[in-house]
Amino acid sequence: MGTMLVWPAAALLGFFLCTAVVVVLGASSTARYEFARNGAREPRRPAPRAEAHPAGSRPAGATSGAAEGQARRQAVALAVRPAPATAPAPEPVAGPAWWLVDEAARVLAGPFADQVDADWAALAGDLVAVAVFGTRRPDATIAPRPSPADRAWLSELGDQLDRLPEDWDALLSDTDPLTTLVVEVAAALVEAGLPLYDAAQGRPAGGVCLVPETGCSGVLVSWRTHDRMGVHGLRGAAAGTAVQQLMNAAVADSLVRLGFVVQTFGATGCSLVTALR
Q1: Residue ranges of the alpha helices (H) in 192-236?
Q2: 147-162 tens-digit pLDDT
Q3: Residue 170: which of 161, 162, 158, 179 has the closest Cα?
Q4: Helices marked H in the chain — which ranges?
Q5: Average pLDDT over residues 209-230
Q6: Per-residue pLDDT for 86 more than 50?
Q7: In whole angstroms, what separates CA 260 from the centre of its chain?
Q8: Which of 259, 125, 88, 78 lies closest to 184 in space, CA to CA?
């Protein structure tokens, strides 16, 4: 009997609980609806007006529309803008540079920064070409110019020729064959690592002495030791004489191997250079 009463009581209690939940939810929904309706009825406050612009006032709608139109025009411009044109080819090098030329002096490749780069390019491309320093002409030929190394060498050789004794002052000219010969001799000696004796400054350091011999149209070549050996004789006369003869023979042999016509002149072992083969 007790069991039969429990189930109806549980069903009744459940019914009351469900009813209470429905009532609570309905009250909450009604409150939110009333709050939203009251807020909609309240008048909206006008937005604060911006300060007047010197160009005049403009409706907000017009401003936003203009901005939107400008954005659209920019987007369209970006979409239809053509690709930039290809950059023009660089103009030919105006200054002198290294070039690879054929037998007719026509440019095969270049320009190059130095002769080594030009030689490597000829080797890599299997080109029968010669590296030449100069300026390119409009007809694709090269006008030769002195390279930086040549200019440095000419400056060094000029410094050495300034050491020639005063005997050359009245003889040196652009048309005198003896001038050409002494320049060739000086260049060959300096290239061999033998400096000229600085007779103009009278310095104690030794070197090769070049004296003109007008009677034979040649150049007398001899070695001068340092003043400590040749003038003061600090190592003895015998040592000074032996070194003098040895160096004279070495200078003469070097000039012969460099292509000069050399003759022995006098008992001291001085050499006379008369020509370049």
Answers
A1: 227-230
A2: 888 889 899 998 988 8
A3: 179
A4: 2-41, 60-80, 115-124, 148-161, 177-191, 227-230, 237-257
A5: 86
A6: no
A7: 42
A8: 259
Q: Say if residues 152 and 190 touch (Cβ distance below 8 Å).
A: no
Which residue matches tokens 């299997």?
Answer: 126
d(CA 208, CA 161): 12
Q: How far is it, in rounded angstroms, from Cα 259 to Cα 192? A: 13
Degrees to nearest 5, angle at CA 87 with 85 and 89 = 135
Residue 216 contacts residue 227 (beta carbons within 8 Å): no
In angstroms, the CA 20 to CA 125 distance is 99
Is the whole-model pTM more than 0.70?
Answer: no
Measured in residues, the chain has a length of 277
Give residue for tokens 């030791």: 225
Distance CA 223, CA 233 (A): 16
